[in-house]
Amino acid sequence: MTVIDARDLSLTFRTNDGPVHALKDVTLAIEPGEFVSFIGPSGCGKTTFLRVIADLEQPTAGTIAVNGVSPEEARMSRAYGYVFQAAGLYPWRTVGRNVALPLEIIGLSRAERRERVDKALALVDLAGFGKKFPWQLSGGMQQRASIARALAFDADLLLMDEPFGALDEIVRDHLNEQLLELWARTGKTICFVTHSIPEAVYLSTKIVVMSPRPGRVTDVIESTLPKERPLDIRETPEFLEIAHRVREGLRAGHRYE
Prior knowledge:
Blueprint: E1 4-15, E2 18-30, E3 35-39, H1 46-53, E4 61-66, H2 71-76, E5 80-83, H3 95-105, H4 110-123, H5 139-151, E6 157-161, H6 169-186, E7 189-194, H7 197-203, E8 206-210, E9 217-222, H8 237-256
Parallel strand pairs: 3-7, 3-8, 5-6, 6-7
Antiparallel strand pairs: 1-2, 1-4, 8-9
Helix pairs in contact: 3-4, 3-5, 4-5, 7-8
């Protein structure tokens, strides 16, 4: 079953200054196990599209299905985990209790919460850090804890809104490697928003290039890179060729507008 099926999707925000056309005629299919990155200029609707998938925004035209049902039904069945740009950890709760918070809200037993938290922390290489507080962790570790919180639902779909954008390049590279390992281990479908061309090419099986507002899909690039990707793959001709196509797609989007 197709995980995300959007057809002629548009979204217009009504404001006091008039309508803001965030998305226009977006048609896109995402299949199980794909790693799909969304890239485009600021304000092009990347995050808005993620929020539509998550039922945080409602489209004004077109249709979208998540696992064959409406976004609302998918949200109610806890079909996805969501990782935001900021880690958003409560400083007065330990890392483990931050990860467990959504599980507390949905009423899981203490034993099941503990089991899921331990599993999620292990997946992001934070085993043994459950009793630490967020302020005792580096920025990169805090983002991994945020990812663990999203993984605790054990949903097959992971939505990630530029989670590494505020981190320095060395930490970002390390987390990119870890995220690929996590994806390989879990087989989850990942939708990932980024402004970085190298990040999009390194991580993805499919890259969705979007135009300036109103956000349209100007290109969908299927990656030909192997699943095993050391960081130095970024210096290969194949990688640079895909990056060039992404860059050309971004330029074409600007010309289109």
